Amino acid sequence: MTSRERLLAAMRGGTPDRVPVAPFTMGRISPDSAIGQELIKETDPLVDVWSGGDPFLGGAAVVRREDTPDETRVTYETPLGPLTRRIRRTAITSATIEFPFKSLDDVERYLSIPYEPPRLDLSSYRAWRNRIGDDGFVMVGLGNAVCVPADWFSPADFALAWAEAPDLMVKLVATASERLIAYVERLCAAGVDGFRIVGGEYVTVQLGHKAFEALIEPFDRPLIEVMHRHGAIAYYHNHGKVMRFMEELTSLGMDALDPLEAAPWGDVSDLAEARKLAGDRLCFVGNLDDMEIVNALPEAEVVEIARERLRQAGPTAFILGGTASGTYTEHGARNFIAMAHMVACG
Length: 346
Hints:
Blueprint: H1 3-11, E1 21-22, H2 34-42, E2 46-49, E3 62-68, E4 71-77, E5 83-89, E6 94-98, H3 105-111, H4 123-132, E7 137-143, H5 147-152, H6 155-164, H7 166-189, E8 194-198, H8 201-206, H9 209-229, E9 233-237, H10 246-251, E10 256-258, H11 271-278, E11 283-287, H12 290-294, H13 299-313, E12 318-321, H14 330-345
Parallel strand pairs: 1-12, 2-7, 7-8, 8-9, 9-10, 10-11, 11-12
Antiparallel strand pairs: 3-4, 4-5, 5-6
Helix pairs in contact: 2-14, 6-7, 7-9, 13-14
């Protein structure tokens, strides 16, 4: 099998010629470098890319951006008054230090913004499809509808808004979902055959089961159904402790789930136990920490841990990978290659 065939077989619940070993994106490796070319050739990379404008805010919003050496100020004009976001930058990273939603009234300001569907930009998707060919699988990365309140409120205010105004939160997420589904329909019509959905962890980590029932199930299930109606893969990303949500996550109908983190970041200590909750069809992706294991430990130790993961998971509907961080370096790349050799040799 090619890498693409191998990955698709696993994500469709089957048993490929061998378990795929899938680094997420190219990490900090140039695909044109010698190690980058070897990584693509020897493993089964998963790549996700951007696809154009913001499907939630749309193409008609008036947005002003002001940059200084260490800060960016973004102002969103609305008929009911402006919303402001401030992002602080350092030499190492960046973070939002002021969120646009500071009160429940700001939700109505957001909803008052005139909406037009955003343009699509599949240049990066097509470039990666052409570059990687059958040596991997390229997906469009999407935030689910709950990403709107989770990204526009601070983490504390996001939780408080759910506690104080659940009906308003549902209204906001429903509007975001309607826009997102229309956007995905356009992407499918343009030829996209795989999507990676992020955002579920905002609910499983921060809000709990009742919020999952109200903010995830009614909106992510139809999103996945649209992808399947067009024959596309629906691949779901959910960090954190997922065992207590495994049956609920599986019920959404996704094809694949990552990263199934082990302790201390997650609670998937045994893939066989997770399989009992998820059933046979859902493809598990991951269970190796990129930074603590793949990018940190010696090759022999990494290979032995990977061998144990294979024993737990079995050969069907499983992709051996990291925590989908895309932050590994050459050391991690060489360990991914070593794992692929181990799997191929038995």
